[in-house]
Design a protein that fits this description.
Blueprint: E1 2-4, H1 8-19, E2 25-27, H2 35-42, E3 48-49, H3 53-58, H4 64-73, H5 76-85, E4 90-92, E5 97-100, H6 106-119, E6 122-124, E7 128-132, E8 138-142, E9 145-149, E10 154-156, H7 172-177, E11 183-189, E12 193-194, H8 199-205, E13 209-218, E14 224-233, E15 237-239, H9 241-257, E16 260-265, H10 272-280, H11 288-296, H12 300-309, H13 318-326, E17 328-332, E18 334-335, E19 343-348, E20 365-367, H14 381-404
Parallel strand pairs: 1-2, 1-10, 2-6, 10-20
Antiparallel strand pairs: 3-5, 4-5, 7-8, 8-9, 11-19, 12-15, 12-18, 13-14, 13-16, 14-15, 16-17
Helix pairs in contact: 1-14, 4-14, 10-13
Bound molecules: flavin-adenine dinucleotide.
């Protein structure tokens, strides 16, 4: 039995299989496994979320029907217990997100790999899978040259297409497509966007956080998403948690219409009428920027955003300026490239899979993790579904082996 890809999904599939007495060889292209998982640990490792299961499931949008059964078998609570079983405690943050107490991935991964090795999983690093031989053997490029491996069944857990330097580069897409497996193009998810700042704004404000705003985006179906939070100005546009939350809809809207507009409330704590009343007071000899700062506390990057996005003539009109402060239209023109994204949308389409995550046109070949065609926002939903799909694929392989090798 081969598992290819040593991220959370592949390692979980390997765990299920070895626990049930199946001999498992795990192959990975990189010198070590779990590199993206370790990077996720740098941001605190948001493992999962403590919200109700209904809300949790809603995060998978159009794929909730497919992800639901994985989570029923291995959902957020089971994941937490499993992490505790590795000797790592977890806690629920103020936002309901679940983290390991140390907020790192390394201790968890270390304990997990130790357990997998002790159970008998054999790890083969620097083995890049690149398809099948004519006889159906798996082909690996290794430092010692080409290697052919024959297996009864396999789990592919090759990840999406972001952060290629960590191992998952999406090179598997043509390998599966050539074999008739329908694959939706990989696209950036939880990504930043280009705005096309002026030279002046970019020079002054790239790297500045924009804090305590509310962003509103209305998609083409008229569904309005309204989220409080903060984001970061970059050299070319915007990124950060608030933007990632809205990114799937923004990306789709840009694909459809060429641009997407977010309305930013720069002063969430104040009513529009109060803002306009403040702006209507006489300015005297003060400059507009010192006036905005003293009357409304708008300064720095928020003042810069106003200058960048509001036509000059509107500054003289309290009603128009007030409306802009409460709903500043920020036009996004392109998502940042896939490689920069936190995760990928697209992947192996569910119509190609049976309920055990086996690729129907390729009997004995199972798939798990981010390489499947689902997406979710940040908040622990990505890792939870990767673990859960690895769990599902592992169980799927066992059922298949039982059916085919009595
Ligand atoms: C900066 C960052 C922070 C993140 N933070 C969080 C977070 O806090 N919470 C959360 O839920 N999610 C987070 N994520 C997302 C999460 O890390 C991924 O969704 C998850 O790692 C995907 O797991 P996977 O097993 O499907 O794939 P991966 O983790 O990408 O693993 C795939 C493995 O397959 C190997 N591989 C690929 N191609 C081949 C090949 N041809 N041959 C052999 N091996 C191959 C790769 O080397 C890699 O080891 C974050 C992602 C990033 C980039």
């Amino acid at each position: 039995m081969a598992v290819i890809g040593g991220g959370p999904a592949g390692l979980m599939a390997a765990e299920i299989l070895i626990r049930h007495g199946v001999r498992v060889d795990l192959y990975d292209a990189m010198p070590s496994v779990g590199r993206k998982f370790l990077l996720a640990g740098k941001g605190g490792l948001n493992l999962t979320h403590s919200e109700t299961s209904e809300l949790f499931l809603s995060r998978y949008g159009a794929r909730r029907a497919q992800v639901g059964p994985w989570l029923e078998a291995f959902g957020p609570e089971a994941l937490r217990l499993w992490v505790h079983g590795l000797g790592v405690n977890t806690f629920v943050g103020t936002s309901g997100r679940v983290f390991p107490t140390e907020m790192k991935a390394a201790p968890l991964l270390r304990a997990w790999l130790h357990r997998l090795r002790a159970a008998g999983v054999r790890f083969h690093m620097r083995h890049r899978w690149h398809g099948w031989s004519e006889e159906g053997a798996l082909l690996f490029a290794t430092p010692d040259g080409e290697k052919l491996v024959h297996t009864d069944a396999m789990v592919l857990a090759l990840g999406g297409g972001s952060r290629a330097r960590l191992g998952s580069n999406g090179a598997w897409v043509p390998l599966l497509a050539q074999r008739g497996v329908p694959v939706a193009a990989l696209r950036p998810a939880n990504c930043g966007f280009d705005v096309g700042w002026s030279e002046h704004f970019q020079t002054r404000f790239a790297g500045h956080p924009v804090k305590s705003v509310i962003a509103t985006f209305t998609d083409k179906a008229g569904v309005m998403l309204c989220k409080p939070g903060e984001f970061m100005v970059t050299a070319t546009g915007v990124e950060g948690s608030l933007i990632y939350t809205l990114s799937a809809g923004l990306r789709d809207e840009i694909e459809r219409a060429g641009a997407a507009v977010i309305d930013l409330d720069l002063l969430p704590g104040r009513e529009l009428s109060t803002v306009i009343a403040e702006l209507a007071r006489p300015r005297g000899s003060r400059s507009m920027s010192s006036y905005l700062q003293s009357r409304l506390g708008i300064k720095g990057v928020k003042a810069g955003l106003l200058r960048e996005c509001v036509p000059a003539q509107d500054f003289a009109d309290p009603a128009r300026l007030g409306a802009m402060i409460k709903a500043l239209p920020m036009r996004l023109i392109a998502p940042r490239p896939l490689d920069e994204a936190i995760s990928s949308a697209g992947g192996v389409m569910f119509e190609a899979l049976d309920q055990h995550l086996m690729i129907r046109p390729l009997p004995g070949v199972f798939c798990a993790g981010e390489m499947l065609d689902w997406e979710a926002p940040t908040g622990g939903y990505l890792l939870t579904a990767c673990f859960a799909s690895g769990h599902a694929a592992g169980l799927g392989v066992l059922a298949w082996l039982n059916r085919n090798k009595p």
